[in-house]
Amino acid sequence: QVQLVESGGGLVQPGGSLRLSCATSGFTLGHYAIGWFRQAPGKEREGVSCISSSSSDGSTYYVDSVKGRFTISRDNAKRTVSLQMNSLKPEDTGVYYCATVRSYNYCSSSWVDYWGRGTQVTVSS
After folding, report:
1. Distances from the Cα of 49 to the Cα of 1, 52, 98, 103, 125, angstroms
2. Each residue of 53-88: pLDDT tens digit?
3. How do residues 21-46 score in pLDDT, each as one tens digit?
4. CA–CA gap between residue 42 and residue 50 (Å, rounded)
5. Residue 8 gets which letter from DSSP?
6. Cα separation of 117 and 97, whole Å?
7. Quick one: CA dihedral 105, 34, 60, 47, positive or negative?
8. At CA 26, angle to CA 44 and CA 35, rounded to 5?
9. CA–CA distances in Å: residue 7 to residues 19, 47, 83
10. Which of 50, 52, 70 is nearest to 110 (CA)?
11. 3-class SS of residue 87
């Protein structure tokens, strides 16, 4: 049974930081690229960041709007993938999902096989 469970969401002021975590089970994490996606109210789900299967030297992708602010990382031994979000903006608000991705450089919903349940991130003053 493949499971991905997100945590760490919440309410934060603009300019603040949050760290999201994805706990995985049911598959060998080191064999899969992982992505973080988000969906704002009334908008399509978009790929925020993806990382390749390597724990030590994983290649990464970031959507332009978060470059320099977000950092994705993974720890295959702990079976977790994290997304450090700094300098948060109101437009970062949405439900964030962790997902398996067929390739880190194809960071879109079309390449997702399994989704987590999502965690709410709200950026508001």
Report:
1. 24, 10, 10, 12, 25
2. 876 667 999 999 999 999 999 988 889 999 999 999
3. 999 999 887 888 999 999 999 999 99
4. 23
5. -
6. 7
7. positive
8. 30
9. 9, 18, 10
10. 50
11. coil
